[in-house]
Amino acid sequence: MGSIGFIGAGNMAEALIGGVVKKGLYDPSKIVVYDISEDRLILLQETYNVICAKDSRQLLQEVPAVVLAVKPSVLPSVVDELKTQLKDKLVISIAAGISIDFIMNVLGRDARVVRVMPNTPALVGEGASALAASITCSDSDMACARDIFSAVGMCLEMKEGLLNAVTALSGSGPAFAFLFIEALADGGVRSGLPRDKALALAAATLKGAAAMVAQTGIQPGKLKDMVTSPAGTTIEGISVLESRGFRSAVIDAVFAAYRRACDLTR
Questions:
Q1: What ranges in the chain are assigned the alpha helix state H?
Q2: Does the reported pTM lie above 0.85?
Q3: Where exactly are the structural domains of the chain?
Q4: Tens digits of per-residue pLDDT, 229-251?
Q5: CATH T-level assignment (fold) for domain 171-264
Q6: Which one of 3.40.50.1580, 1.10.10.10, 3.40.50.720, 3.40.50.300 gives the CATH number of domain 4-158?
Q7: Quick one: DSSP state of residue 191?
Q8: Mapping DSSP to helix (H, G, I), strand (E, B) and coil, where does residue 148 land?
Q9: 1, 25 contact by CB (below 8 A)
Q10: Contacts made by residues 101-104, CB under 8 angstroms, sequence distance 24+
């Protein structure tokens, strides 16, 4: 077990720290964190017993690998400021839209960089992350990054060119799912259910449906047919969704998010 650093102590960093501590991947004494917010540092120290650095430079003196958990707008200046200290580290970035090539242009072509696209369900241990790495990364570098993000959900390795599509699907997807849950609950309220009961049922229904897809390996269309009885209630609802262009609207939403992610990438 080595040590790991986190520059940035926001919600995603906290989720990752909580995940690796719970899984026993890192002892809290081997996790070093820095953030400009002293309140966030105090919270993480009191909650997880991690080590708090006085600044980023001190942090980088103590760890061989660092997760850059800062906002995309901030990451370029952080990388530039710390380029001398970062060039010999495994650098793991979760900043959307910042390419591996961008970071390597600052740190040098021999830098070891992993780019990861996590999503917000990582906050409850149900994340879906995808990672890509520079050709300079070793198998152990990849294993380090993969283990960290697998601690808060599933983690897939893929080519960096696909990460904008990942951003659109699993990055933006939770917001689309939240919208659907809200709409399901509204439908339940319209049909007479109390708001709290409708929301609980809607959330559990979507969670259960997702688990059936993930655990059975059966195509969603076949699972849909299992619920849809002839002349029953479900086919009536599906016919309304189809008449309103439900599937095409979702497809177009993901593709629109993908095009925006491409526009923002540098």
A1: 11-23, 38-48, 56-62, 75-81, 83-86, 100-107, 139-150, 163-166, 173-190, 195-216, 220-227, 233-243, 246-264
A2: yes
A3: 4-158, 171-264
A4: 999 999 999 999 999 999 999 99
A5: ProC C-terminal domain-like fold (1.10.3730)
A6: 3.40.50.720
A7: T
A8: helix
A9: yes
A10: 102/76, 102/266, 103/79, 104/134
